[in-house]
Amino acid sequence: MTQKSQKNADFIVIGGGIVGLSIARDLKRRYRDCHVLVLEKEEHIGEHASGRNSGVLHAGFYYTKDSLKAKFTREGNRLLTDYCVEHKLPLNRCGKLVVVRDERDMVGLRELLQRGQQNGIALELITAKEAKEIEPRVKTWEQALFSPSTATVSPKHVVDQMLRDACDEGIEVLLGVKYLSNQGQVIHTNRGNYEAGYIVNAAGLYADLIARNFSFSQNYTILPFKGLYLYASNPQEKLRTHIYPVPDLRNPFLGVHFTLTVDGVVKIGPTAIPAFWREHYRGLSRFNFSEMLKIMTREFGLLVKAGFDFRQLAIEEMRKYRRVVLAKRAAELVSAVDPSNYKTWGKPGIRAQLLNIKARKLEMDFILEGDKQSMHVLNAVSPAFTCALPFAQYVVDLIQAKLN
Asked: Fewer CB within 10 Å of terminal CB in the chain, N or C?
């Protein structure tokens, strides 16, 4: 057997999504003379969460004040908006309405308003009449919230630009290089071995498995959820702003809503359907029997006993796979919704949702574990895209503290 060559780097980042690229760029800014290497298993950037998300830049009012999500969303929104303006990337500053379906939603609406105020978010409590002035088709009970800073970007344009910036800054990005295993600080891949002074794991759907190779993620596992949007097929279908319901704040999902793409196309969704393997995008594509067996066993265990109502969540989300059900949910928010106008499913995405095995609950906030040799981003779910730039600074702060 031919001995594979080994390359060295001061820092290796596993995963070339928006989080991995942002961390690599911040490492290079702080350690200018260091060799920073990014390993991405796909032949193109943005093949997974970074290129498949909704592109919504969230404002930051969904999250409790003490959470990392609250800490980074407002600043992430500002920084990524400025980034798109600076690089002349597509940007739709359409804002967002959060509407009330009935009196029961008022408690949640007031909670969102309070969280927004605590987090320093520009958020307006408005009447139903004022909501209709923003979007004439909106349906809301007495009041609504308006978030002027919520916007939409093109995820593909953003990650492509970040890749160009990373390369221009002297970061080495290798595509088609898949992590296989490690032996201490030596990473074994399908294209040779790489030794790092420090390793950062930002591998998304596989972050928990890689972390276990480094003796982390002992209490966690990724539970994948498939997200799908239905696109309006009639180009005359128009809205002026995103329209969301008041969500169930006990779950990490925001409910069926209307989202505008960066070029103004209307879509409804998403689903949050339990997936059977980690990259379960379409049919049997990327089928992995071992993953399916483990995930279905885990999901069955949650049906029997969980710290949240997984059974009801799974049933509700599976129902949304029917177009008519998804359109019916959306019609609670907007008038004159014609289900026949929503026929085309968009590109599926998989949410790499972290499950706390011991507590049997879905983790709501970002989770990291690390030491002097490696740092592992275990839970970087929505709004991680929005938060990527300040979150990366936080990760590198932690790394610097470990190294000092």
From this structure: N
Asked if residue 234 has pLDDT above 90, the reply is no
Give residue-wise pLDDT tens across range 359-404: 888 999 999 999 999 999 999 999 999 999 999 999 999 999 999 9
State the SS3 of the chain: CCCCCEEEEEEEEECCCHHHHHHHHHHHHHCCCCCEEEEECCCCCCCCHHHHCCCEECCCCCCCCCCHHHHHHHHHHHHHHHHHHHCCCCEECCCEEEECCCHHHHHHHHHHHHHHHHCCCCCEEEEHHHHHHHCCCECCCCEEEEECCCEEECHHHHHHHHHHHHHHCCCEEEECCCEEEEECCEEEECCEEEEEEEEEECCHHHHHHHHHHCCCCCCEEEEEEEECCEEECCCCCCCCCEEEECCCCCCCCCCCEEEECCCCCEEEECCCEECCCCCCCCCCCCCCHHHHHHHHHHHHHHHHCCCCCHHHHHHHHHHCCCHHHHHHHHCCCECCCCHHHEEEECCCEEEEEEEECCCCEECCCCEEEECCCEEEEEECCCCHHHHHHHHHHHHHHHHHHHHC
